[in-house]
Amino acid sequence: MKDFKKGLMDGILIALGYISVSFTFGLQAISTGLTWWEAVMISFMNLTSAGQFAGLDIMLRGGGFWIEMACTQFIINLRYALMSLSLSQKADKSVKGIHRWCISFGITDEIFAVSIGNDGEVSKRYLYGIILLPLLGWTGGTLLGAAAGNILPSVVRDSLGIAIYGMFIAIIVPTAKKNPAIFKVVVISILLSCIFKWVPVLNYV
User: Fold this and answer.
1) Alpha helical stretches, state H, 47-179
2) Cβ 175 vs Cβ 110: under 8 Å
3) CA nearest 104: which of 83, 119, 73?
4) What are the contacts of 87-92 at 24+ separation with CB within 8 A?
5) Quick one: DSSP state of residue 202?
6) Which pairs from 32-37 meet CB under 8 Å and 24+ separation?
7) Residues 62-112: pLDDT tens digits?
8) Spatial separation of the C-alpha atoms in residues 47 and 108, rounded to whole Å
9) Minimal CA–CA distance to 51: which of 30, 21, 31?
10) Is 91 helix (H, G, I), strand (E, B) or coil?
11) How confident is residue 167, by pLDDT bands cut at 50, 70 and 90?
12) Spatial distance between the Cα atoms of 197 and 194, rounded to a whole number of angstroms
C-alpha cells in the first residue's frame, strides 16, 4: 500500500485544482440546459477539461455528435495517447493487461506531469492512487458548480474560467526549474503558440 498512499498524496493538490476548474464546467453545463446529473456523468466518464468545455460548446451550437463532436474530441484528446505511450516507458511490470486500459482512462496533463517526474519506475498502485482523488475532485467540483447554478455573480464565474491556466503553470514551473530539457520544451511551446497566434497565414490554422 506504500505506492498507493504515495499516489494519493501526490494527487491531493491536483484534486484541489480540479475542483475549481470543474466547478466552472458545472456552472456552464447548467446554464446550457443540462441537468446536474448529466453534467456530473460527463465529468465522471470523461475526465478531460478541454474536451468537455469544447463538447459543451458543440452541444450548445447544435453541432453533430458523430462528426463535429467525434473529430473535435479526437484532436483535443490525441495528446493523451502520446502521454500514455511516454508513461508506459516509465511504468513497471505490474502495469499490464487490463490495468493499462483502466489507468489510461485517468491520464491527464497534470497526472502525467507528476507521474513522469517521479524518480524511478511507477507501479499500478501508485497510478491508481494518483488518479483516484483527481477523478473524485473533478466530479465533485462539477457537482458543486451544477448545484450553485446561477447563484454566483458573473465576476466570480469569469475568474474561475482562468483557473485551469493557473493549474498548468503550477505544475510546469517547478519541473522546468529542475530540468533544463523541460524548460527548453516549455520555451519552444510558448514561441510556437505565439507564432500560430500572430503570424499572418499561420494564425488561420
Assistant:
1) 49-60, 70-88, 98-105, 109-116, 124-148, 154-160, 163-178
2) no
3) 83
4) 87/112, 87/115, 87/116, 87/122, 90/115, 90/116, 90/118, 90/121, 90/122, 91/121, 91/122, 91/123, 91/124, 91/127, 92/121, 92/122, 92/123, 92/124
5) G
6) 32/56, 32/59, 32/60, 34/59, 36/143, 36/146, 36/147
7) 877 778 888 888 998 999 999 999 999 999 999 999 999 999 999 999 999
8) 8
9) 21
10) strand
11) low
12) 5
C-alpha cell of residue 105: 482512462
In the block, cell 491536483 appears at 14
Nearest one of 189, 170, 139, 167 to 37, comparing CA atoms = 139
CA distance 43 to 37: 10
> Hey, what's the cell of 124?
499500478
* Residue located via cell numbers 466552472: 24
